[in-house]
Each structure stands twice: as C-alpha cells, then as structure tokens.
C-alpha cells in the first residue's frame, strides 16, 4: 500500500496543495515561513514520487506470493523501481545543472553590458548600495530597478527611476535590491524554475514559481522597510506601479497596511513545513521498509 | 585605469563617432595617456563580446559599435524583464517584474529603430539568451 499512498501524496502535493497555497492570503503576513513551506511541499512531492516508484514493484511482487518473491523477478522489480526513481532524480538534476549554466552565462553577459552602458557620472553621485554590489545607471525613460546576482553583483537603476524617486525612496529601492543579493533570493527562485521546467505537468509549479517570486519580493520589501521606512517603501512602489500590475499593487497594499512579522503564525508554518517532509516518511516509508526488507531476506 | 572603465570610454567614443574608427582615431579621441596597444587590446575584447564590429578597410581595421546605445539599453531592459527567452533561465531578480505592455512596446520599438548613429543595421547582439523552447525540453541529456 505504501506505493499507492505515496503516489496519492505526490499528486496531492503537486496539485491541490499548491493551488490552495497560491490562493491563500496569510503568506503575505509571513513571507519567509511561507517560502519555507513552499520548499517543503516541493521537496515532499518529489520524495513521494520517487518513493512511490521505488515501492511499487516490490509491493506488487509481494502480493503475488511467497514463491515468486525471490530470484529473478525480484531483481527485475528492483531494477524497474530504481530506473523510474533514478529518472526522476536525474531529470531534476540535469535541468538544475543546465539552468544554472545558462543563467550564469546570461547574467555574466548582462553584467558586461550594464558595465558598458553605465552612466558613470550619475552612478557616482548615488554611491554604492552596499558592501559588494556595484551600482549602475542606465539611461531610459522607464523607471526601473533590478539586481544582477552572482559573484560580482550589480544593482541597476534607470535614470528615470533616479529622477522620479525621492532620496529616501531611492534608499529603500537600493535596500530592497541589496536584500535580494545578500540573501541569495536568486537561488530560491532558480530551484522553483528548475522544478517547473523539469516537471511542467506533474508538479504544477508555475503556481509555485510565481507565488514564491512574489513572496521573495515581499521579503525584500520588508528588509528595505526596516532599513528605511514604510512610507519610503510605499512611495518607491508607487513610482513603479503600472496599471494592471496586480503584483506591485499587492505589495503596495501590503506595505501600507501590514506590519512586518507575525511570530506565532510563522512558527506554525515552520512546524507545518517540517511535518510535510517528516510525517510521510515516518507514517508510510518506515512501515513499508520494515515489511519489505524482511520479505526480501535482507534483515 | 580599470579595464572596465576603459572599455566604457572606448564604447563612448565609438557611439559618438559618425562612422567606423581606426585604432589610431580611437586612441586620439580618448585624450588620455594610453598605449596604442592598450586601445587595440580593448577593442579586441569588445569585439569578442560582440558589441564592436571589425571591418577591413584597406590595410587597417576600422571599428564600429555593433548597435546603438539606445538599442543596447532597450535590449538589456527587455532581458532584465524576462521579456525575451521565456523562462529558460531563472530571471534576474527584478524589482519590477513586469512593466506594462506599453512600456515593453516602447522598449521593443527602441530596439528596432534606434537612431542610427552607428552604421549598424543588424539587430544588436544582446540579449544573447538561450533560444526559447517549449516545455518539451528535448535537449535535456537525461532520457
């Protein structure tokens, strides 16, 4: 039964759970804990899928009868299980590596170009946003700010953004980007992009990817709020808001009305995240192993 | 002077110039104490990055920016926005994930019809993101 339970679990963690999480309103109150929960759900879904693949052939075999349990059929069962589980893991690993290489190449290229296009006279007046990151100013009429993560990170703003933002708001924007860089939010985001690319149908991680992306922005907003002020952060967001952009609108609403942190809720979410990973292992995998190993004569 | 700063200064001269320049001309326009070979090296590096085109003109080489400043800026912003290349790479973490359709259209227009101070007519090299593919992912070396 373990394989069935794990398959059901994998499907639930891949479908309804992300849908519910993406619709929920509370993650905005505790973005960090919510991101951890998303990661736990994703990890548990992959583990359950792998576990289900591993358990299925053995359980089928055990159901057949004692005389077929040993010898060649067992070997075939083990081989089939290992192949399917291995394919899942390999697929994810391959996508992760490929994505990592491509992303880094693209970023290096982007960094080169940003360095070439820098309006040095403007970036010199603003100064460096942080210890490691270098500020670059692009010309352009679209107010815009972002960071290029990596070993030599860059924070990029357009001249339009510099002209639009008040000094305190600019400080908030730079603190926001610096928070992304310091906490390596790009790695979190990258893992969910990888999951989406590896299992676009099985794991409905487009939801996960987008929801986690927004939560990461909220997390950086909170860091910027503590380093500048709520009003400065709200002002900065207002400067960037475009009609129809629900994401910025949600962040603006949140900065205006929500205070950072809700320790009790956060603790609950962390516990839930731990449970999502631990409970299936204890409740399903261990009983299966304790039945399967003696049956295979391994104990 | 730092190499990056030098590269930026050289690009500035190429963008400002009415046509392709020789190494000597770039060297003279920079108005700095620089070795001729240094300028040549920098131009070589920029050509390798694909932002400078090298043309043979008789015995000498002439150098021109591969795209205008406006084009390069626009393509860079589209790259940052993830407007190109779908999601084959994890996006640069952007403060504003999406600009409105109008702004994106403006950027795309700038990309195509940047004022041609440089003689380049081809599309700029940037962004050199991996080709967008559908989710089938036939290139993944696993299965």
UniProtKB/TrEMBL annotation, chain A:
Keywords, sorted A to Z: Hydrolase, Membrane, Metal-binding, Metalloprotease, Protease, Transmembrane, Transmembrane helix, Zinc
CDD domains the UniProt entry points to: M56_BlaR1_MecR1_like
Cofactor binding note from Swiss-Prot or TrEMBL: Binds 1 zinc ion per subunit.
Name of a matching Pfam family: Peptidase_M48
Cofactor(s) required, per the database record: Zn(2+)
Transmembrane parts of this sequence: 6-24, 36-56, 76-101, 269-289
Peptidase M48 domain ranges (all copies): 126-204
Stated family: Belongs to the peptidase M48 family.
Name of the protein in question: M56 family metallopeptidase
TrEMBL record, chain B:
Record bears the keyword Transcription regulation: yes
Region (Disordered): 112-143
Gene3D superfamilies tied to this protein: 6.10.140.850, Winged helix-like DNA-binding domain superfamily/Winged helix DNA-binding domain (1.10.10.10)
Keyword Transcription regulation recorded: yes
Sequence ranges of Basic and acidic residues compositional bias: 134-143
Keywords: DNA-binding, Transcription, Transcription regulation
InterPro entries (alphabetical): BlaI_family, WH-like_DNA-bd_sf, WH_DNA-bd_sf
Record-stated family: Belongs to the BlaI transcriptional regulatory family.
Protein name: BlaI/MecI/CopY family transcriptional regulator
Natural source organism: Actinomycetospora chibensis
Lineage: Bacteria, Bacillati, Actinomycetota, Actinomycetes, Pseudonocardiales
